[in-house]
Design a protein that fits this description.
This protein is of the alpha+beta class and 216 residues long. Helix content is 15%, strand content 35%. It has two helices and 13 strands. The strands form three sheets. It has a seven-stranded mixed beta sheet, with helices on one face.
């Protein structure tokens, strides 16, 4: 069920926008990106998907892809307000929901809306793919980690810090960025999520107490 009561339509305009990049080492940097001029006509999802595929064919490294795609994400969400409502309200069990916006055999991207209820926290994980989220409603606290292996604990990680992202923020992730996500506040945290092709052999869930990792 799609709901419009959980969040209010927000202004994702350039003046209020913050763009971020989380590196493989868990560092979070502000991105100084030239925003795109909004078109007179709505910037449709199908056009966004086509331009994304063109970027993937033209740009080979993940860092450059994030820099190139972030302005398109803001252009899409600012122009097509209906997308901000295209999420499913989470059920208390499991406390989160995923709604795919587009699926096609062979299309190399995952495009979805994700919603989390407050008081739920994700496992510590990486994505093994470049990724990007845009916060639509609520707030998310991301705890950031990096690998710090030792001979006795090859999957050891250490905390780098944490960052709270608010509506209007667009956050890019490098494939080996490690984080956990915790919604904060009273309303669900709702995000537009975009991921490249996942290398599942390199995607892990980490246990900071035992300093071990398993496939995720």
């Amino acid at each position: 069920m799609t709901t419009k009561s959980a969040i209010s339509t927000i202004n994702l305009s350039v003046t209020e926008a913050q763009n971020w990049l989380i590196t493989d080492d868990g560092e979070c940097f502000a991105l100084d990106i030239d925003e795109l001029e909004l078109p007179e006509q709505p910037y449709r999802l199908y056009r966004f998907l086509t331009e994304l595929e063109d970027i993937l064919n033209r740009v080979s490294d993940d860092d450059s892809r994030i820099w190139t795609i972030a302005p398109l994400v803001r252009k899409l969400l600012t122009s097509s307000y209906w997308l901000q409502m295209e999420f499913t309200h989470p059920h208390p069990d499991p406390g989160w929901s995923v709604r795919f916006l587009y699926q096609e055999h062979g299309y190399p991207l995952t495009v979805q809306m994700v919603a989390w209820l407050s008081s739920y926290t994700s496992p510590i994980h990486n994505h093994a793919a470049w990724g990007m989220i845009a916060v639509i409603g609520g707030q998310e606290k991301h705890r950031l980690w990096r690998r710090s292996p030792t001979p006795e604990q090859p999957d050891r990680i250490e905390s780098v810090g944490e960052k709270v992202f608010v509506p209007g923020d667009i956050v890019g992730f490098m494939p080996n960025a490690i984080h956990s996500v915790e919604p904060i506040g009273d309303e669900p945290a709702v995000t537009f999520n975009l991921y490249g092709v996942t290398d599942y052999s390199q995607r892990f869930e980490f246990d900071v107490h035992t300093q071990t990792a398993k496939k995720f």
